[in-house]
Amino acid sequence: SQDAIGNVQISMNEYLDKLKPIELARSRRKQQTSAVNKIELREYRSLCGVMSFLGQGILPQASYCASFLQQQIGDLRISHLVKANTITKHLKSLTPSITLRKPKGNFNAEFTGITDASHGTGSYGQTGYLGGIRITDSESDDIFHLVDWSSSKQSRVSFSSLGAEILAANDGIDRGLALCTGINFIFQTLYN
Question: Do residues 43 and 31 make contact, with C-beta atoms less than 8 angstroms apart?
């Protein structure tokens, strides 16, 4: 939505309502080291999917949480479901919205981002990426709007932290270049 003075707000409150904890009886929660059953596994995967969707939309924290939880699926225990419910409770306390303030006067919008990675044990590498619009307007306000992020398993595994960082930077550059043209077009349309 856009208000009377031109600020744009993006909200995903209705999607946050879909984020529901996994139902566990008190007696089941006490069985911390027990393996999960098929129904619990399905609910866990579903919860990860909702978190991932929120992460791609408005809450970068949810993207990180989904990636973290998905790493546990190979050896899932009741303790993991309890942790997932704790994470869910925390995410539901956040406000899933971003306000893009209208720049004052002439402005310059550019896309910028940061990447980070870990090479893990050699069989698993994690990549994180944050990208956004940096706006400088006529009053020299420097505004940063986070618009793109990801946290995922690396498609190629590196055996050194330098290699992992290079792969993460490459992914970030690809995403950034793809978004630059569209971002500038949207802002020129909204604010000119």
Answer: no
Q: What percent of the chain has pLDDT over 70?
A: 86
Q: Provide the pLDDT for residue 65.
A: 86
Instruction: Give the predicted TM-score (pTM) of the model.
Output: 0.59
Backbone angles phi, psi at 33, to 5 degrees: -95, 0
What crossing angle do the helices spanning 38-57 and 60-70 adopt, rounded to 10°? 150
Q: What are the CA-CA distances from residue 178 to residues 18, 127, 173, 181, 182 (Å)? A: 30, 18, 8, 7, 8
The whole-chain average pLDDT of the chain stands at: 80
pLDDT digits (tens, 9 = 90+) for 33-67: 999 999 999 999 999 988 888 877 677 788 778 88
DSSP collapsed to 3 states, the chain = CECCCCCEEEECHHHHCCCCCCCCCHHHHCCCCCECCHHHHHHHHHHHHHHHHHHHHCCHHHHHHHHHHHCCHHHCEHHHHHHHHHHHHHHHCCCCEEEECCCCCCEEEEEEEEEEEECCCCCCCEEEEEEEEEEEECCCCEEEEEEEEEEEECCCCCCCHHHHHHHHHHHHHHHHHHHHHHHHHHHHHHHC
